[in-house]
Each structure stands twice: as structure tokens, then as C-alpha cells.
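quick one
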Amino acid sequence: MARSAIAEKIQKLREKIRYHEHRYYVLDEPEISDPEFDRLMQQLKQLETEHPGLITPDSPSQRVGGAPREGFVSVRHQRAMLSLENAYAYDELGEFDRRVREGAGRGSIEYVAEHKFDGLSISLQYEDGVLARGVTRGDGSTGEDVTANVRTIRAIPLSVDTTLLKKHGIGRDFEVRGEVIMTRKAFEELNRQQEEQGGKRFANPRNAAAGAVRVLDPTITASRRLGFYAYQLLVGGRVPVKNHSDALEALSRLKFKAGGDWEKCAGIDAVIRYCERWETKRERLPYQIDGIVIKVNSTALQEELGFTAKAPRWAIAYKYPARQETTVVKAIRVQVGRTGTLTPVADLEPVEVGGVTVSRSTLHNLDEIERLDVHVGDTVLIERAGEVIPHVVKVVKHGQDEKPFRMPEKCPECGSRIHKAEGEVAYRCVNAGCPAKRKESLLHFAGRHAMNIDGLGEKLVDQLVANGLVKDPADLYHLKLETLSNLERMAEKSAQNLLEEIEASQKNSVARLIYALGIRFVGERTAQLLAEHFGSLHRLAAASLEELTEVHEVGPKVAESIAEFFSERANRDLLKRLEKAGLRFEEKRARPKGTRLAGKAFVLTGTLEKWTRDEAQELIESLGGKVTDSVSKKTDYVVVGAEPGSKLDKARSLGVATLDEKAFGRLVGKS
Ligand code: AMP
Ligand code: ZN
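structure w/ adenosine monophosphate:
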């Protein structure tokens, strides 16, 4: 292929990838699956490896690059990154409105209300439409250059469409300010990982996001799945459009995630209604907000009002009352989890926090107890955020008890030995049959994100396990109405409902079932990826370590844990019984498949004339075959196009059949 044709091909591929990045990371509406996306990226990387002269810094393949640095360089901000004045009551918003109206000499002001993201503010500087620098707020006048790190955040465009800039009268050199955030989900997953790998927990998503941006190694930033919300557009330090709302709209068009459910408000009463509306709704947002930012919409009026030394006069942050309360620790108990992990829990003097009565709070682990220096009898500050269980923020006053908390030497549930693995924070009960583990596994299996068996709560599981009616999830599918309705506090009607729930759960997706099995390190997302990749529980169970690590985001540690799970006799038995019970083990395919290539595994290398990689792949899959990324003994054919890569050598050394384009055409019946 001529160089210009390759350049064009690369360009097309980049545009396609950018399009899908935008769908996924900005709009939250992906059109293709993760493996499909990975394939596009793989194709691009392959082409770029073959033609390194064509790599540009704004290529989507170039997000993570460069070695860890020694330190950060300080950069001066063109326009200071100020903080915001705070309001804690609606009265104060009224005051703010009065001052603005006086300054403007007008009766009513148009405002924009938007979410106050709880993350780390960042200034992104674009030159000639390409991201040139990312700088932290720092002290407001100078920040740190964290360019290599912010480049890894997929919601941040590495370049923008310059024709769009022109169309909207925005200069090619511009600045976007916004907040780097971590979603609650990514945060919880990160903490779970940290805990299982013996690392430190992060206190909140803001700290986790800030930590991830301020590390010297960009590969760490890349692994933290950060998000970015833009809330300001500047050219030469000034707002280039008439209204703040125009800026937010322009940012969206430039493919940023702009504002957070922002709204124009005619007057301060509308602003207050917006604040009220989001007070409870914010709990259900995927990210944390600590308030609402209110900004004067008109740019001209913003300029007229100007700044104080610390903050703009045209904006204010309304802060929601913290969901924090103080109470006394009555006891510290230990709970045994699904994997046998012992988790210390504080029993609290019941207290109301933001409308909910709280009587216990997790203390996570021994390290956390030591860090907090908490004892029975201490007065503590607790906090509730979102749907997560409340946690202890700090001790406000120590009580009489100076005795440090100790982990029990025997499992509080079954009396077995407790083991602490080298380098791990967690203590675990070694008894595989520990009833606590059984109960927790069942609760996990039935959980909302797993098999979603509503009505199978803690009390019921306790009874089922204590009476020996259920030992593992497969037993659930053999429960009889009679047995159930004989249980304490179980009316026949609710027993019937439960049986229906259990039966309905048989139809759940393979992804849910994989997650429900409770394999260590396999969270919801990983389960989804595994289901997409293998399409069947049997194939997953039979996968080698090598095949497992072929899955996007599955590292050696996760792969090992999966392989270990399926190598256990007890788990294999469980699978058999689950299958017999009628659970779904094979993912239904969306498209009916041909059978011409059924069961055949293909690897593609080099460039074909008639088909792009995607098209060839679709063709193979439509005929029942599958395409994998690397050549192994299990590969049936390697399809070799022009300028093949190292996969051809690998095929030859393993003796795998190779097909040129013609032969491939004949095989698929399209020659
Ligand atoms: P504070 O740190 O409490 O003084 O609040 C000011 C900070 O709020 C800014 O520096 C931003 O990092 C952050 N912030 C979060 N969301 C917004 C938003 N929508 N508009 C402006 N600033 C925001
Ligand atoms: Zn035990």
C-alpha cells in the first residue's frame, strides 16, 4: 500500500476511535463492546508500529507514554485559578443575589446552576487545537505540570476539531478548566483492590483522584479510570462567548463533558429550587458533589463585577450540609466475610445522619483502627456518603478505655484458626466450610448486581444456613414451598414470591453469574469483560492463564485468581450443579451465526485488500468463527495480508496454517 493510503487509513482509524471514546467516556452511550474497541486500538497500534513516522502526539494510542518523572515543573497560570465564595444557607444565596443585582443595576439576574464536583481542578491548555499542557490549580497563581497524567484520562480530548473552533469564533489556542473526578464505582473498586492487595484505602474519591493525578508515573494515573468535567472555556484568559451557558454548549460540541446537569435559572428563586432538587438526587449521581456552583450567565456582567482577592464576585458555591454526626462507639465487633476476611465493625450509639438512623459503621481493617486510634467508648465523627455504609472520619474525644483492639485468634463464627497472609492487611478464617463464609457467599450471589434475588436477605440466609437447608447457591434452586413456609416469619405468600424470584434468576446473563460466583478480584466490570470475551462459563472455566490475560484489564493476579477458583474441586462441582439447575451458561448471541467456520480460531496479520480488519473479523464471526489477538497452538488459521507482523513468524514456528488473502476468500466463500 502506498504511504499516503496508509496515512489515510491511520487517520480514519483514529477518527473512529475518537468517536467511540467520546461515546463511551463523555456521553456514557457506547455503541460497541470493549473488546471491539480494543481491537480498533490494536489495529491502530499495529499500523503505527509498522509506520512509526506517522505517529502524532494526539493519536489515541499515545495516551500513556513516557517514563516516570523525577518531579513536577511549576507553571504560572495565565489567569489565576481562584476559589469560590461559599454559602451554607439559602439566605446567603439571597445576599449574593442582592449584591449582584446592585452591582449590575438590574432587577433580576440570569444565573447558571451546575454541580460542584468534588475532585481536583485542572487547567488544560490547547495550542493549535492540540492539548499542550495540563496544570493543577496549585496555589492559584502557579500549579504543577501534570500533562503526561491528564493525557491518560479518556474523557479529555487530545485534540479538537479546529473547523468547529473557527465556526464558533474560538481561537485555536484556548484553555479549558474543569475537575478531574473519580466515580463512586471506580473508587469503591479501587479500595477493594487496594485492600485485597494489601495497600492503603483512600478516604474519599477526591483524595483518590487527586492522588492519581499527582503521581510521577502516568501508567498509575491511567489505571485509575478518572473522569473529567469541563466548566470553563477561556481564550487569552477571557471568556470568548457571550454567556457562560454558551461556553458550556461550546465545550460539549468540542466533545468535552461539560457541566453537570447544568441549568439556566431566571433569578435566585429558581437557583434555590435547583439546589433543593439536587439535595437528595445527588446521592444517586455516579460521582460525588459537595454542592452547587451558581454563576452569573452574562460574560459582560461577569467582567463588570470582577474579582475579590480570593474569588470571583459573579459566582458562589452553595454547600450542602455535611452528612456527618458525632456519636459514641459502644463495641467493636468482628464480621466474617465471603472470602473469610475478618472485618472490624463499630457498634454505635444510634444517631440520625441526614435522615437515616445509623447504628454501625465499618472500620475496614486493623490498619484503619490504628490510623484512627479508635477505642470502645470514644466519641467519633461519622459520615454517610451516597449509598455506601457510613464510615468513621475521626475520633473527636477519647473515652476511658485505653485497651487497644485486637483481632481474635479464632473465627468468631466457627472457632477455626485465623490466618494473615504475608504482605496482606486482611485476616482470614481458614475453614472452607465456615458458616459465615457460606452466608456471605449466598448474600453476594443473591445481591442486586449479581443474581438479583430480591427477598433473600440476611435473616433468611441465617435461617437457611443454620438449618442446613442451603449450603451453597445451587441448593437455592431446589428449595420447596413447604420447607420455606415452615421457616420462622415466612408466610406462604412471601415464600411463593421468593421461589419465583429464584426461578427468574436462572435467566440472568452469564456476566451476572460470573460476578455472582464471587471469585476474588472479579468485580462487576471484570465479569462483564470475561463474559463478552468467552461467551460461556465453560470456556471461561477451561481458559488457561495465557488466555485469561488476553482479556482487556485482566492482569496476572486476576487471571491466577480465576484459574485457581475453577481448579478447586468444590467449585467445579458447584458449577455442575448450577448448570443442572438450569442457569444460563452460554451467552445468547445477538446475530444468528453461520456454521461454515464454526469453532475455528483465526488471527489476522498485515493488511488485506478487500477487507479492513474489522470487516474480516465480522465476516469470520458471522460464519461462526472467532478472532483472537495472538497466535497460539489453539489457533486454526493465521490470515496473512500485506506487510504482516511477527504473528506470521509465530504461526510458522508453531506450525499453524496460514492463509493468504485468496485462500481466505475461498474459505469464506467470497473469492
Ligand atoms: P473551593 O475549593 O471550595 O474553594 O471551591 C472552588 C473549587 O471548586 C474550584 O477551584 C473548582 O476546583 C471546584 N469546582 C467544582 N465544580 C465546579 C464548577 N462547576 N464550577 C467551578 N468550580 C468548580
Ligand atoms: Zn470461620
